[in-house]
Write a structure and sequence with these properties.
It comes from Adhaeribacter rhizoryzae. This is 3D domain-containing protein. The chain has a six-stranded mixed β-barrel with strand order 1-5-2-4-3-6. It is built from one helix and six strands, in the order αββββββ. It is flat and about 85 Å long. It is 11% helix and 23% strand. The protein is of the alpha/beta class. It has a domain of 107 residues: RlpA-like domain (Barwin-like endoglucanases), CATH 2.40.40.10.
Length: 169
């Protein structure tokens, strides 16, 4: 309580200080008149230089695709946590649009894909084709395959050949 009273008295003193002490405002200096513009005698035109932009086309990676559920018999003993420690919402996991990739595709094991990369998946069907984020990895015995995260109650099953994935970032 005493602390607040001291603060109030101190703030009253600080805010009334400009009224008590005579302060003078500095006088504003006049800017000198601008110099007369100089006459341009020569115009130099520089040639427009074309810049070559090296764009590397996005190369597709041909893989198999399947689906997996966040349950212990299809994952490890913590099915709701992915390999990059993201947490899966169990009610409708397909809304995450997450995918697990085989280890040979990850940069950690010599591939070109990292956790968090966005993949464009083509070749499954109209409903499942689209963009997915890499959040999980598959068993080391599986090569050149992706697993799309779906829920058990969504009735989505399948193994698709000739699927193409494109790494976007």
């Amino acid at each position: 309580m005493i602390k607040y009273k001291l603060f109030g008295i101190l703030s009253m003193f600080i805010f009334s200080l400009p009224k008590i002490l005579p302060f003078t405002t500095p006088t504003k200096k006049e800017n000198p008149a601008p110099a007369a513009p100089t006459k341009i005698t020569e115009v130099v035109q520089l040639p427009i230089r074309e810049v070559a932009v090296a764009t590397k086309p996005i190369e597709p990676i041909k893989v198999k695709a399947s689906v997996y559920f966040p349950v212990e018999n299809q994952t490890d003993d913590s099915p709701l946590i992915t390999a990059d420690n993201s947490k899966i919402k169990y009610t409708k996991p397909s809304k995450h649009r997450w995918v697990a990739v085989s280890r040979n595709l990850l940069t950690r094991w010599g591939g070109t894909i990292n956790y968090g990369d966005t993949l464009h998946v083509k070749g499954i069907n109209n409903k499942m084709d689209g963009f997915y984020v890499v959040r999980d990895t598959m068993n080391k015995r599986i090569k050149n395959q992706i697993d799309i995260l779906v829920g058990e109650k969504e009735n989505i099953m399948g193994l698709w050949e000739d699927v193409k994935i494109y790494k976007l970032n």
